[in-house]
Amino acid sequence: MTGRRMHVILLVLALMLVCSSQSIQAQQPGASVKLDCAGPLNIDVYPGSTKSGFITCTVENPTSFTEKIDIEVDSSNLSHAAPGSIQVGPGESEDFQISVRADEGMLAQSLTLTVQATVVEISGAPPPNVAEDDEEEVINILQYGDVAISADLVMFSSNVGEEFSIEFTIRNDGNSEDTLQLTASGPFDEDMKSAGYTVSFPSNSIRLAPGASETVAIQLKAPNQVTSNAYQMDSVLQDMFGMEFSVASEFSCKDSGCISESLNFIIILEEEIVASNDAKQDDASSDEGFSSLLGGDGMTEEIGVASLMVIVLVFFISARKPPRNFE
Hints:
This protein is α+β, with helices and mostly antiparallel strands. It has helices spanning about 1-25, 275-295, 300-320, and strands spanning about 35, 40-45, 50-60, 65-75, 80, 85-90, 95-100, 110-120, 130-140, 145-150, 155-160, 165-170, 180-190, 200, 205-210, 215-220, 230-235, 235-250, 260-270. It has 2 domains: about 30-140, Sandwich (Immunoglobulin-like); about 145-285, Immunoglobulin-like (Sandwich), CATH 2.60.40.2310. Strands 11, 13, 15, 17, 18 and 19 form a 6-stranded mixed β-sheet that branches.
């Protein structure tokens, strides 16, 4: 009886030890974490913009123990700011923000933002298991439109009925491929009346890569005679007209108003005076008398040139450029 009793006692003790071990293992904490971010992240990079944006993420602790969670961020070589770690109570969640900064004028594109949350402590001790979660969101570098227009010459002259060309260069200053729209106004006289020129564009729109430029040649045909406002310079009648060429970003016109640039040109139309010999003698006598009244030879020519320069100056002062508005 004694041997059986001892055998039973030992068996009971062994069972108690197994149950106790399983109970202790069941009470050991297991780490867990859940991560969610609200994307995508859109960033404006046009001149004058903040060039930055932020995204909100939520980290959740589904366990019954306080966790310390490390946050790691990969923003595709863009600078960023985010918390290094967060303490989250049992059964609770915490929000945090990640701010990302881009460079002004960088090309429009989509990049990847990777966020990883890893449990590094549970109730102040290293976790018994690996617990982590990650999220991938998209960073959109938004497109903007901008243009430029320039020319080496802004003053042209032609004879009546003559064909000639005006050249200028347009450039895509936006951060993505864009279609540049061309328009012309004029030539007009000082009263904004049409001068009667024929204007021909090679194309009203040109597709350019960001930073690319192209020279445009506009063909004009002068009218067959000057207007009644023409002034005389020696044996030539001259008219002066203003003309404006504009270039606009097609992309910018889709949203908040066209981004455009303009360039003003001066066009002088000349017509030679053909007179008979008698008329030439009369004109010479009149010119001498008029010159004497003005105090010497050549004064009329100086007045004509001065008048021309004043008109040119007034024209350029009155030229207007539209203000930039990228928003």
